[in-house]
Amino acid sequence: MKRLEGKVAIIAGAGRGIGRATAKLFAAEGAKVAVLSLTPANIEAVVKDIEAAGGTAIGVVCDVSDADQITAAVNKVVTAYGRIDILVNTAFDPSVALSSVSDLSVEGLQRNFDMGPIAYLRLMQAAHPYLKASGAGRIINLGSAGGLLGMVGYAPYGMAKEAVRALTRVAAREWGSDGITVNNVMPIADTFGSDRPPLPNVFDRNGSPEDDIAPVILFLASKEAQFITGSSLVPDGGMTIDAAR
């Protein structure tokens, strides 16, 4: 039996990178997948790949910085599949993610929060009743070492991702009684484009979304991770060895 047979998963930010890799892997493991993205062409490509491989998926155009679109997207998934078991939040806006502290604008910071912790919160709230009804709901949020390590040049991205980590911990405590696990993944991967030089780690390479990161997200979504919540898993090639957590 496939690990996610019978499950329905929403992947926000599934049009590229880690979200795309996760959507394809979840579908291969038997989940019905809702591919959420802002870009219709990316959605169409991911859904086409999933269906060509024998999986099941629907595409949902959604700007996750818009509360009404989030509500509509969740309603569309429930109408199509009748339930939600898994929510994966991977969305972010790479065009505003990098800045020094000195040059950081409030507008740029706000965009990172709108696409990160605020969007993740709204998606979590909208999906919560269905995840609770599932009896074994799973939420996996994407954080980053950018905030944990105080990486130079990643001020807005790091600040927003640390807020995601805090949201994850609090939700894990509050929603555990609802049978929902809430965890955080902090990867080092080619999320900004494979042409960027690798960030320093033991293996001297950025992680592969398909081979290094999506399988970790799958684990957290699976039955095997049912006793893990409020945690941050770090598929980062050892970049955060000895870092405070």
UniProtKB/TrEMBL annotation:
Can the keyword Oxidoreductase be found in this entry's annotation? Answer: yes
- UniProt GO MF annotations: oxidoreductase activity
Q: Which SMART domains match?
A: PKS_KR (SM00822)
What is the similarity comment for this entry?
Answer: Belongs to the short-chain dehydrogenases/reductases (SDR) family.
Keywords assigned by UniProt, alphabetized: Oxidoreductase
This chain's source organism reads Ferranicluibacter rubi
Entry protein name: SDR family oxidoreductase
Q: Which InterPro entries match?
A: KR_dom, NAD(P)-bd_dom_sf, Sc_DH/Rdtase_CS, SDR_fam
Q: Where is the Ketoreductase domain?
A: 7-191
Which residue positions does the secretion signal occupy?
Answer: none
